[in-house]
Write a structure and sequence with these properties.
- The chain is globular and about 45 Å long.
- The chain is built from five helices and no strands.
- About 70% of the residues lie in helices and about 0% in strands.
- The chain has one domain.
- It is mostly helical.
- The protein starts with a helix and ends in a 6-residue tail after the last helix.
C-alpha cells in the first residue's frame, strides 16, 4: 500500500484512538506503572499531535523512493525516532501537563507498548479486517 497523507492521518488517529487507548488505560488507572497517572493520556495525545506533523515529512520522503511506498520496516524505525524525539522534548523542554520528572523507563515502556501494538495492528489486523483500506491509500472516506 502507498498511503496518502490523508490516509496516514486517518489511520494514525484511528489506531491511537482504539489500540492506543486500550494500551494506555492500565497505565492511566495505575494497574501498570507508578500508580494512577493521567500523564500517560497526555503522552498519547502528544504522540498523535506530533505524529500528524511527522506524517507530512514521511509523505514527502516517500515521494523520493523509487516505488513510492513506505515499507513496514521504515514505519517501525519512524516509531523509534518519534519516541526518542518525544522523550527529549519531555525531559529537556517539558510539555504542558507532562511532568519533566516522569521516569524515562515508564515513558519508554508505555510508548514502546503503544507503538508496537499500533505497528502490529496496522500490519496485520487492519489488512485482515479492512481489505479495501489498503487500496484506498489508507483513507477511510
Amino acid at each position: 500500500m502507498t498511503p496518502t497523507l490523508y490516509g496516514r492521518w486517518q489511520t494514525r488517529l484511528l489506531l491511537l484512538a482504539t489500540v492506543g487507548i486500550l494500551i494506555t488505560l492500565p497505565f492511566y488507572l495505575g494497574i501498570v506503572g507508578p500508580g494512577f497517572n493521567p500523564v500517560f493520556l497526555w503522552i498519547l495525545l502528544y504522540v498523535a499531535l506530533f505524529g500528524l506533523a511527522w506524517d507530512i515529512l514521511y509523505n514527502y520522503i516517500q515521494k523520493f523512493r523509487w516505488d513510492r511506498d513506505w515499507p513496514g520496516a521504515l514505519q517501525l524505525l519512524s516509531g523509534i525516532w518519534e519516541g526518542i524525539f518525544l522523550a527529549l522534548l519531555v525531559k529537556l523542554i517539558g510539555l504542558p501537563n507532562v511532568s519533566r520528572g516522569l521516569p524515562l523507563q515508564w515513558f519508554f515502556i508505555h510508548y514502546s507498548l503503544v507503538w508496537l501494538s499500533i505497528y502490529l495492528a496496522s500490519q496485520s489486523l487492519m489488512r485482515a479486517l479492512f481489505p479495501r483500506w489498503r487500496f484506498k491509500g489508507g483513507q477511510w472516506f
